Amino acid sequence: MSGGTINGETLAALQPDLVLLKRAMYEAEGEREKLDKLNIPYLVIGYDSMEEQIEALKLIGTALGGKGAEQAGGIAAYYRSVISRVTELQKQITEPVRVYHSISEAVRTDGEYTLGNDWITCVGAVNVSAGETLKAAESDYFAAMEQIYTWDPDVIICNEADTATYFQEDPKWTGLGAVQRGAVYSIPVGATRWGHRGSMETFFAMLWLGETLYPEVYQSVDLKKEVFGFYQTYLGITLTEEQYACILAGNGIRLKSSGGNG
Length: 262
Fold this sequence. Notes:
Distance between the termini: 23 Å
Strand content: 5-15%
Radius of gyration: 19 Å
Number of domains: 2
CATH architecture of the largest domain: 3-Layer(aba) Sandwich
Mean pLDDT: 92
CATH class of the largest domain: Alpha Beta
Order of helices and strands: HEHHEHHEEHEEEHEHHEHHH
CATH topology of the largest domain: Rossmann fold
């Protein structure tokens, strides 16, 4: 697949047992018909909330069967346990922090019914872009610079380190209170970009944001222990201190060509 289209010749040559198809691609005119003509089985995966993402994980596990189903079930159970813990911790929050979530570029953000809005609000923060009328293109939502200034969020979180640097260094953003206070953070990037709509690690994004916004409330959470344990159990990776530092920095794990920061 390239540029949002299915390359029928390439897929035919690969002879896959199953194609995982994004919902947007399934809905695109003419794309799924290519798979139908090739008689290649496909599974449509789409979600706009944490609950839907958990069900998608389980669905993929069921399709894979065997070890895949076991792994998916374990990850889904861990995901639900983090949601429960975060929901309980939220009860201790008396002054919700107002957050702007930048997705890949400064003005791209969350709509109301999106995965990003779901996990941010679960932590007990106010997602300033939710409920606003924003320019939408497929699953993307865009806010004008003037709108971001109107919101003047307490904190800005960015899923790419380059974008966080852009907010902090470009003169056009110096009037934002979050920039002046140094409250611009790069969301960690590990096996996936935490909290990104294509990420498995939404649960870590919640724990990280909770620690970042409400350190007093999250004193009982040991994020490092959680991450090391998960990577060892489900990914078979024994992290090093250096790798963990790169993950937290949101820089140095993913190549730029893969949609991350090199």
